[in-house]
Design goal:
The complex is a heterodimer of chains A (254) and B (372). With 254 residues, chain A is an alpha/beta fold. Chain A has a domain of 177 residues: P-loop containing nucleotide triphosphate hydrolases (Rossmann fold). Chain A is 35% helix and 24% strand. Chain A contains 10 helices and 10 strands. In chain A, the strands form 2 sheets. Chain A has a 6-stranded mixed sheet. In chain A, β1 and β2 form a beta hairpin. Chain A starts with a strand and ends with a helix. By secondary structure, chain B is α+β, with helices and mostly antiparallel strands. Chain B folds into 2 domains: 177 residues, no CATH class; 175 residues, no CATH class. Chain B is built from 13 helices and 12 strands. In chain B, strands 1, 3, 4, 5, 6, 7, 8, 9, 11 and 12 form a 10-stranded mixed sheet that branches. In chain B, strands 2-10 form a two-stranded antiparallel ribbon. In chain B, α1 crosses α10. Chain B starts with a helix and ends with a helix. The chains are: A alpha/beta (254), B alpha+beta (372). The interface between A and B is medium-sized, with 39 and 26 residues. The structure holds adenosine-5'-diphosphate and magnesium ion (MG). The site of magnesium ion (MG) has 4 residues of chain A, from α1.
């Protein structure tokens, strides 16, 4: 069976005034690397949150890693064991050090503090910041924070990694490095990787690209189509002038 | 769970000023409990010692009077008590408050000379009074406070008396008064020759409680026999009122502290909506989030209890530096009051933390993450 299987997923907000997801169908195979693109507000994050068990669809069928997420009452265990999230903003807890942040998801799974610590050190080594283990998020650079966030996502060795614009707040050099890291993890660990991005160069690393618009997945574009130059440009041209979420974010805050 | 405790500790240390203020709020409540509790126990103990001097096993008073000073035991009743089996010695004492040339409210005790010793009045200067004379003995504290010495005169009510001795009893209420021959007191204002209470020394082998019950039965419930200071409330409602006031004030202080604590924890929970959402997103259960917030609250509660208890003891030490306070109260540091303080401190923090903790478990992870 597919690792992620979604049929006719609906999610509405504000008493149906906002139709964030409007009948989404999605099939992602075990170990696949898929990029999800689309303009801001089209429902990408909402879909990712449903797949990751952060919220439930209003309607439809959603099975992830053989678990029916609509029927499961408490998704805590699913979130802890089956998926690892990497967000655009690193979302580390500011009062905890890098290693403590990585240990958070392990609380539900590993009893002993020492085994949690050992595993966290391994992971921080794996993401290449074994020297900054006791730094607070505020003392780390943007790239380093995102590495810690990746280590945290891997804490309980989940079969599925979900990343929501993981390079959205990084400069191109750091973004490149983070993508190289995620790609490498995908290759070596054999995880399923679903990544939301606005960046064509990020999306091109994926095996497959999906394009979302107004709460619907319009097309399953095979990677080869985008690979030839003409397609890539026209694909990018689908949403010229669309602001990246990060820019919108800054506007909202100021 | 060590990880969780450490995490909770880090969280409350993030806002030090606020945490300190919260701890301060609760600890004032705890200090109130400790201070008032210790003082009330001290007053109760002093009162009790008046009623039951150290050598006395049973104290008999009139039933249903509400205030000790209203109690009346007749000479006839005393004689009957003396004949009851198991009673070794029984003697009467009259307690009264009178106007004097030195103070409008002055405690006086009327008794026979031979009973002074067993009633706990130890002559430290001068001598005993002679029965039937205008002689009085005065408490050390009263003598000091009012500048009287052996040989001086004192006006009690309408008559002038001569101070022939100074006594100490170790009890601030007695030491702040005077003792005079009971027949003189009777002649002044009690024609019926009654006592306020009868003090009984019981033969060694006899069960004191049982004998007390027997005496109550003999008099058909017209008298009350106290066998321990703890039973003081049975006859004196004044003590009950003091206790009630202590509880009421303590409760108020604790409730105010508790509401303050709940308020700050609530604030800190809402400030961390996003963080709590992240914890839920990366796999924390509702239960763990609940435990974390409650841990924060309990850490605050434990700190507040320790500080509150110390503060309470400090306040008492301060109060006791005033001679007037010292004259009236001997603080009694009973364990009970400390146990109550600790239980209340923990309870307040648990109750104050529960609601915010429940609210924290209701935060949806997506709600926290949607501001991306
Ligand atoms: N919890 C929510 N309550 C109300 N509206 C929401 C909520 N979450 C998302 N939305 C709305 O749903 C739409 C899709 O949002 P989102 O999935 O975040 O888009 P994207 O990630 O593609 O930018 C937007 O219009 C957004 O404002
Ligand atoms: Mg988004």
């Amino acid at each position: 069976m597919n690792d992620i299987y979604a049929r006719n997923i609906h999610k509405h907000y504000d008493n149906g005034r906002i139709r964030a997801l409007n009948g989404v169908n999605l099939d992602i195979a075990n170990g696949e690397f898929v990029a999800l693109m689309g303009p801001s507000g089209c429902g990408k994050s909402t879909l990712l949150h449903m797949v990751g068990g952060l919220d439930k669809p209003d309607l439809g069928k959603l099975v992830v890693a053989d678990q029916d997420l609509i029927k499961t009452r408490d998704l805590t265990s699913f979130r802890a064991r089956t998926v690892g999230f990497v967000f655009q903003l690193h979302n580390l807890l500011p009062s905890l050090t890098a290693i403590e942040n990585v240990m958070i998801p392990m609380h539900e799974i590993r009893q002993s503090e020492s085994s949690r610590r050992k595993r966290a050190l391994e992971l921080l080594d794996k993401v290449g910041i074994s020297k900054r283990v006791s730094g607070l998020p505020s003392q780390l650079s943007g790239g380093e924070r995102q590495r810690v966030a990746i280590a945290r996502a891997l804490a309980n060795s989940p079969p599925i990694i979900l990343a929501d614009e993981p390079t959205g707040n990084l400069d191109s050099k750091n973004g490149e490095q983070i993508m190289a890291l995620l790609t490498q993890i995908w290759k070596t660990d054999g995880t399923t990787l679903l990544i939301i991005t606005h960046d064509m160069s990020v999306a091109q690393r994926a095996q497959r690209m999906l394009y979302m618009r107004d709460g619907e997945l319009s097309n399953n574009l095979p990677h080869s189509l985008c690979d030839d130059t003409g397609s890539a440009i026209s694909f990018g041209g689908c949403f010229p002038g669309t602001k990246r979420d990060s820019e919108r974010d800054i506007e909202v805050r100021s | 769970m060590i990880g969780l405790l450490k995490f909770a500790l880090k969280n409350i240390l993030r806002r030090r000023t606020r945490t300190l203020l919260t701890i301060g709020g609760i600890s004032i409540g705890i200090a109130t409990i400790v201070t008032l509790g210790i003082l009330a126990a001290g007053i109760q103990h002093s009162m009790g010692r008046v009623l039951m001097p150290a050598g006395v096993d049973l104290t008999i008073t009139e039933a249903g009077v509400g205030d000790l000073i209203m109690s009346r035991i007749t000479t006839k009743q005393l004689q009957k008590i003396q004949t009851i089996e198991g009673v070794e010695t029984a003697f009467g004492q009259l307690v009264s408050v009178t106007r004097t040339d030195i103070s409008p409210f002055f405690m006086i005790f009327g008794m026979h000379r031979q009973d002074l010793k067993i009633a706990g009045f130890e002559i430290v200067e001068g001598r005993d009074f002679a029965d039937g004379s205008n002689e009085v003995i005065m408490g050390r504290m009263a003598a000091t406070n009012f500048n009287k010495e052996v040989g001086d005169n004192i006006v009690l009510g309408i008559r002038t008396h001569k101070i022939v001795g100074i006594y100490e009893s170790g009890n601030p209420i007695q030491d702040g008064g005077a003792v005079l021959p009971i027949d003189v007191l009777w002649a002044n204002n009690n024609e019926a020759r009654e006592f306020t209470m009868v003090l009984v020394d019981v033969a060694d082998v006899v069960d004191v409680g049982g004998l007390g019950q027997k005496i109550e039965e003999v008099f058909d419930g017209e008298v009350i026999a106290l066998s321990s200071i703890a039973e003081l409330g049975k006859i004196d409602q004044g003590m009950e009122i003091i206790n009630f006031a202590v509880y009421a004030i303590s409760l108020l202080a604790v409730v105010i502290g508790g509401i303050g604590a709940m308020n700050t924890i609530m604030m800190s929970v809402f400030e961390r909506t996003r963080e709590i959402g992240i914890l839920r997103a990366v796999g924390w259960s509702r239960k763990r989030v609940f435990a974390m917030i409650l841990n924060e609250s309990i850490i605050i509660g434990i700190c507040a209890t320790v500080i509150g208890v110390l503060l309470g003891i400090l306040v008492i030490a301060f109060i006791m530096t005033f001679p007037t306070a010292k004259a009236l109260i001997q603080p009694v540091y009973s364990e009970v009051i400390f146990v109550i303080a600790v239980i209340v401190g923990i309870l307040v923090s648990v109750i104050g933390g529960t609601y915010p903790a429940i609210r924290a478990t209701k935060f949806a992870p997506t709600e926290a993450l949607r501001y991306e």
